[in-house]
Specification:
By secondary structure, this protein is α+β, with helices and mostly antiparallel strands. It has 3 helices and 4 strands; from the N terminus they run E-H-E-E-E-H-H. It binds flavin-adenine dinucleotide (FAD). The site of flavin-adenine dinucleotide has 24 residues, from helix 1, helix 2 and helix 3.
Amino acid sequence: MRRYEVIVIGAGLAGLACAWELVRRRHRVLVLEREPVIGGRASSWEENGMLVESGFQRQSRVVSHPEDFHSLAPGYDHLRPGQQTDVPGLTLAGDYTRQPYFATMEGAVLSGQRAAAVVARRFAGG
Ligand SMILES: Cc1cc2nc3c(=O)[nH]c(=O)nc-3n(C[C@H](O)[C@H](O)[C@H](O)COP(=O)(O)OP(=O)(O)OC[C@H]3O[C@@H](n4cnc5c(N)ncnc54)[C@H](O)[C@@H]3O)c2cc1C
């Protein structure tokens, strides 16, 4: 049986960036994705000869409790969690986590890279 050092849950841009950075550092990484395609909100697939974008087709839902979500209004940035958590072994990545951008592909990738740095530091004993 193969043994993994890191499990990345979710193959969106943040998870993939995190996994890529860790593989580059020679860690054994398993990526788990619940959907049949990778890429999360940035994924697309072909259906009946048409390119379908997941952001519009799969991820859009009615928000019934808007107060439960971070607002993009100025002054709310401190509510976003960082990549490092107090839970042993748990590191967060995702466009919602704290980094200089809001909900963007760039922010998602950056959060994944930062999460990978946190994990790598932990392996190095830091
Ligand atoms: C319609 C639309 C248009 C956009 N346009 C732009 C744009 O023009 N420019 C831009 O920069 N950004 C754009 N964005 C935002 C950008 O797509 C997202 O910020 C970015 O893709 C988020 O990446 P992420 O990895 O943080 O999250 P996600 O893409 O949401 O990835 C999370 C992944 O985790 C998986 N997952 C969740 N729970 C589990 C579980 N329990 N087990 C296994 N897997 C799980 C999900 O299936 C998903 O694949 C757009 C978004 C949408 C919806």
